[in-house]
Write a structure and sequence with these properties.
Elements: E1 3-4, E2 6-10, H1 13-22, E3 28-38, H2 43-46, E4 50-56, E5 59-67, E6 73-79, H3 83-92, E7 106-122, E8 125-138, E9 141-154, H4 157-171, E10 174-175, H5 180-193
């Protein structure tokens, strides 16, 4: 099973620029455009699964994420031009077989942002530092997105935790408890609640 462990923080544009200047590159720039999907009955959301198709510098990547008890997430992804076509392929990588029961998907919300990413080697492992700037979209509503992520690539979870906590203390960052998907979904629900 693929596994993802990351920590997210709110990080405004000015702070992002300070961080970019503080860490020598090369930083990688990735244009991201994400559509999140669910069934018409919202079965995936009820399981806290996140199914998305994301264009990364024009390449279509389909991903499923599921929660894990230790705070990490199961993650399976592959290049694929169509989200329904991707489902059996994701299962072949180890994603839950319940995904094979899905026959219809609808887009529910999305995100559009630019990511600046940097691999950071640490004494006991490797992390990716990512700065995201753009917007979240749900229905007709949108909201600004400014975020910092630290994702563990190699080593124990404490490597990412220690690095992220040091960044938070240095730059006065506030932890972000909700994923991009959850925040965009709340926007979409807000539109529905107001009859938009």
């Amino acid at each position: 099973m693929g596994q993802e462990f990351e920590l997210k923080y709110r990080c405004d544009e000015a702070t992002q620029q300070t961080i970019l200047a503080s860490f020598p590159g090369p930083w990688q720039t990735i244009a991201m455009e994400t559509t999140y999907y669910d069934t018409p009955g919202r079965e995936l959301s009820a399981k806290r699964w996140t199914l998305r198709r994301r264009f990364e510098n024009g390449i279509s990547i389909c991903t499923l994420k599921t929660p894990a008890p230790d705070g990490s997430r199961g993650e399976w992804e592959l290049p694929c031009p169509d989200i329904l076509t991707a489902l059996p392929q994701l299962c072949s990588l180890g994603a839950p077989e319940a995904l094979l029961e899905v026959t219809r998907l609808i887009p529910v919300c999305g995100a559009r942002f630019t990511r600046q990413a940097l691999s950071v080697s640490l004494p006991e492992g490797l992390v990716e530092l990512a700065l995201d700037g753009g917007c979240l979209m749900g229905g007709e509503a949108s909201m600004p997105l400014w975020e910092l992520e630290v994702e563990l690539k190699e080593g124990p979870q404490q490597v990412a935790i220690g690095f992220a906590e040091a960044l938070a203390q240095t730059y006065g960052l506030i932890p972000e408890q909700k994923s991009k998907y959850r925040r965009a979904l709340e926007l979409a629900k807000g539109d529905m609640d107001h009859g938009i």
